[in-house]
Amino acid sequence: MELGLVGLGKMGGNMRERIRRAGHTVVGYDRNPDLADVHSLEELVGKLQAPRVVWVMVPAGEPTRTTIDALAELLEPGDVVVDGGNSRWTDDEKHARKLAEKGIGFVDCGVSGGVWGLENGYALMYGGDAEHIARVQPVFDALKPEGDFGAVHAGRVGAGHFAKMVHNGIEYAMMQAYAEGWELLEKVDFVDNVREVFRSWQDGTVIRSWLLDLAVNALDEDEHLEKLRGYAEDSGEGRWTVEAAIDNAVPMPAITAALFARFSSRQEDSPQMKMVAALRNQFGGHAVATKQ
Q: Which NCBIfam families does the entry link to (predicted)?
């Protein structure tokens, strides 16, 4: 099938390549002309045969809103827009209503996989009407990991981004647990090889995971994380998860504590945040703050 893809950064660029490897045609647009296949959204839409599918992969908030507003004026009834960024689920219904007024479908899709997704596949959580999901299904099949798992129609519009938000909240708590354990092991003077302790957990333990593998990768690159400052950003989805927990009276102490720990990293050089920062860089290519 044909797909228009708007946003060709670290995620979007690799997604374009993976979809093409599956035999589909992708027309990509990015503000950076060195990355783009076309020079404008107008040209992108013009190169696609109706009914079209256009996937938006730009930062959440105003960039996504302005892109969808522009597509609403360019697309035709029967076309479908997919928001694959990290938009807040509350924006999805607004986008769906705006597009529906013009007969255009809307699907929200949470995407996880970071810089490793090109080779390993992307975990996909999508929301929307079944007819719109069916139109995009060949692309979902191209992006997902091999096997029976890794993709889900989570529910109606908004469900995909809500599921991805909760996924990221859980990720916060898991990273924080590894970081706290690493700091305690580093603190005592009778554990001689913390990196190898972490490595030993990769097989046979109940805490083995891909995040643990990435922690070992980070320690192989910088055994005591001495090159990093103990500073970690929060993407926004951790905050949204905690806010949703409050709105629904769901106790969420671990995720809330992990979010607050990131806030504390902006006040001091936190050893735990060195590990969190290293993990974010390993799985997502997120920038890290290094010591001067």
A: gnd_rel (TIGR00872), PRK09599.1 (NF007161)
Whether 76 is a known active-site residue: answer no
**CATH no., domain 2-156:** 3.40.50.720
Instruction: Give the pLDDT band (50/70/90) at residue 69.
Output: very high
Cα(286)–Cα(179) distance, integer angstroms = 17
Pairing of strands 105-112, 80-83: parallel
274 residue type, one letter: K
In 3D space, the residue among 239, 279, 274, 235 whose CA is nearest the CA of residue 255 turns out to be 239
Q: Which of 2, 17, 43, 164 is an active site residue?
A: 164
DSSP string, 32-70: STTT-SSSSHHHHHHHSPSSPEEEE-S-TTHHHHHHHHH
pLDDT at residue 292 tops 70: no
Single out the catalytic residue among 101, 146, 171, 237.
Answer: 171
Query: Which fold, 165-284?
Result: N-(1-d-carboxylethyl)-l-norvaline Dehydrogenase; domain 2 (1.10.1040)
pLDDT tens for each residue of 35-49 = 999 999 999 999 999
